[in-house]
Amino acid sequence: MYTTLAPVLAEAQRVGYTVGAFNAHNLEMVPPMIAAARDIGAPIVIQTSPGTARYVGMKNLVAVCRSMAEDEIVDVVLHLDHATSLTDIRDAIDAGYSSVMFDGSSRPFAENVAASRRVIEFAREKGVSVEVEIGTIGGTEEGISVAHGQLTQPEEAAAFVEQVQADALAVSIGTHHGSYKGKTAIDLDLLQRIHEAVPTPLVVHGGTGVDEADYTALTARGVRKFNVGTELIVAWTRAAKRTFGATEDHTSLRNNIVPANDAVAEVVRRKAGLFLGSTPVAQAA
Ligand SMILES: [Zn+2]
Fold first, then answer.
1. Is 143 annotated for ligand binding?
2. Distance (Å) from CA 98 to ligand 1 centroid
3. Which listed CATH number (3.20.20.70, 3.10.20.740, 3.30.930.10, 3.40.50.620) goes with 5-229+262-276?
4. pLDDT digits (tens, 9 = 90+) for 86-120
5. What is the C-alpha to C-alpha distance for residues 267 and 211, in angstroms, rounded to an integer?
6. Which of 228, 231, 232, 222 is CA-nearest to residue 200?
7. Which keywords does this chain's UniProt record carry (predicted)?
8. Domain boundaries, the chain
C-alpha cells in the first residue's frame, strides 16, 4: 500500500521495531529497494533529498513508488528528506509525496517552531506526514557541511514538541551525515532522556556510521525511523565501478547496472531485517 509515515511509525511503535528509511539517489535503484523490503515483509520509507527529487522528477518518483506499492504486498512511504525550503515541500506534496521532512534545525528556536507549524498545517490538510528536527546533525550531505552538530537537549525537545505536533522528530545524538568508514559513538543515555521527555517517534539520521550491534538499543529508546543513505551510495558505486570497468563499451547497460542495483537491495534487505529485530551476524568488510 502507498501510505504515509504516521501509520507506519504507529505500527512500529505498537509492535516495537524500527522502520528503515533509505535514500534513493537515482530512479534505477528504487524498484530493487522496494522489492527487498517486500521480500522480508518490512515496510519501507524511500526518501530523496530535494536535489535528487529535482534530478529524477518528483512525479516520476511518486509514479514508481505508487505503482509498486499498489501491485506488491509492501507498505511504501515516499518522503522528502531535509527540505529547508517551503517551496520544495509544497512541490513534493503537490506531486504526491506522502511524507516530508522540514528541517528548521539551523534556524533560531522560535523560527523553527513557527515554520514547522506552518508546514504541518499545510501537509495535514493534504493528508501528508511531517518530520521535523531539533538539534543539528553534523557532517556533509548534498555538499552542505555542518562542522559540529548540536546535540539535542531533552528540555528543548520537550518545549519544541509541546508547540510542534509532528509525526516524527529527528534528533542529534552523535551521528554524522556522510560517515561510513568509522563507527559512530552515539549517546544512548541522551537518547533515553529525550525518549522520556517526548512522546513523538524519534528519527536517527546519518545512520550508516552506527554500529549494527546498537540497533536494538536504539529501538528500545524510541527510535522508529532510521535513515540510511551513504551506505547505499557506496554499495552502488563500488559495484558499478567493478562492472563498468570490466565490460566492453557496447555491452548492454543491464550487465553494468543490475549488479549495482543488487548491491543496494542487499543493503536494504540486511538493514531492514535488523530493524525488525533480527540478530546481526558478522559482515565481511
Ligand atoms: Zn539527515
1. no
2. 18
3. 3.20.20.70
4. 999 999 999 999 999 999 999 999 999 999 999 99
5. 14
6. 222
7. Metal-binding, Zinc
8. 5-229+262-276
Q: Is 207 annotated as ligand-binding?
A: yes
Q: How far is the CA of 136 from the centre of ligand 1 (A)?
A: 9
**Catalytic one of 75, 81, 91, 167:** 81
127 known ligand binder: no
Distance of CA 209 from the midpoint of ligand 1 (Å): 12
Please, is 178 exposed, middle or buried when counting C-beta atoms within 10 Å of its C-beta (0-12, 13-18, 19+)? Answer: middle
249 annotated active-site: no
What is the pLDDT, as a whole number, of residue 183?
76
Lay out the sheet containing 144-146: strands in order across.
Answer: 144-146, 138-141, 176-177
Is 131 annotated to bind a ligand? Reply is no
Q: Measuring CA to CA, how many Å separate 131 from each of 1, 41, 184, 224, 280?
A: 20, 24, 23, 12, 28
Which residue positions in the chain have pLDDT lower than 50? 285
* 103 CA to centre of ligand 1 in angstroms: 9
